[in-house]
Design a protein that fits this description.
- It is a single chain.
- With 401 residues, the protein is an alpha+beta fold.
- Helices cover 53% and strands 19% of the residues.
- It folds into three domains: 209 residues, Multidrug efflux transporter AcrB transmembrane domain (Multidrug efflux transporter AcrB transmembrane fold, Up-down Bundle), CATH 1.20.1640.10; 78 residues, Alpha-Beta Plaits (2-Layer Sandwich); 95 residues, no CATH class.
- The strands form four sheets. A four-stranded antiparallel beta sheet has the order 11-12-2-13. It has a four-stranded antiparallel beta sheet with strand order 7-3-10-8, covered by helices on one side. It has a four-stranded antiparallel beta sheet with strand order 6-5-4-9, covered by helices on one side.
Amino acid sequence: MKKTIRFSKFFLPAAIISIIIVIFSISGYIINKGFTLGVDFQAGLIQEIKIAPTAFSLRWNGVSNAVLQLDRSGLYIIVSGAGVESKTHSFPFSEYTTIGSIKRGLEQALEDIEISMPANENVNSQWLFLSSQGNPVLNKDTPFVIHYLNPQSAPVDISEVRNAMAGFTQGVAVQNIGTPSERHFMIRIEDKKDGRVRSDEVIQNLESYFGKDGIAIMRSDYVGSSQSQKLIDQVFYLIPLTLLLILVYLVIRFKVQYAIGGVIAILHDLLVIIAYLVWAKMEFNTTTIAAILTILGYSINNTIILFDRIRENMRVYPDNTFTDIMDISITGILGRTIITTLTTMIAVLFLFIFTTGSMKDFALVLLIGMTSGTYTSLFIASGFVNFWENKVKKRAKKTAV
């Protein structure tokens, strides 16, 4: 017979450690004045930008209409209008391999086009991309700007973007999108007290730090305070509702003490994550919410497996004390718990190592939560149920006497 490990000896020390963690979590939340809200929960301007220089800009001086299109295979100018035959001028990247060759091709094909090219003419044409700002219909008043990004460009650290935005006194949240080499960021700025923050103010700050004409706006949106507050309210309803549904399920499947023990365990996991978020000042965003809900589901699954084993062993060992049954049950599922947790954590660890931005944060929260979930299943949920059952038996003996 397998040797039984006396996990019950560690129930009291684990309870003391958990009380310290709870105090640490609550005090961190109070001292740091809540979470560092990410871009998903702040009212104000949202902008996705790429830090990428200008390749060239175009003006159209003709009486006809000229529309620019750009895709992975080439650049196209569609000329149309009253009294003009509609024609598409194509400049495939397979033939026009540099922006210098595109410039010469445009000038030869279209006499009404005016091109300003600050970049080196040897820049690879396949590095070109369009921002979301500006009308693709060319005109003589406003130049249409085309950017480029060399895949070998030095990565831009998120701290540099935060430094560039240091001139804003209101809350600024910055988030990586993609890999550092893509130089793609999401910036969210809270509204000013005296009005909305403007997009051009953001660009001015970024260009003063990274250089003029070096910022491409990929998306620009505004989120009102009522929308952001509604999202926050939904989040803080969602987690209590999840806990309530888990409690109801455990009451139906097991006994009340098991249900309470299971909910205490996942509340403990939640407080561990809160402690990390507030003390590390990690952004609290929708990705964090997804990680938290994943962890709660993972943790309660381990706890349910343990409770099933306890119920089974109570029938197998009817003469043993409940504490002995608890030790036998935890020892019985220990191997499965370790193997399952380690294999899952290895996958999450690779996710943490080889990703960036919000996905890296998601993986880190999962690693912390999975460690906590294993601990709470083995010591907190089981410790509470063991305490409850022993108290009930002692009370029954006193009543019998």
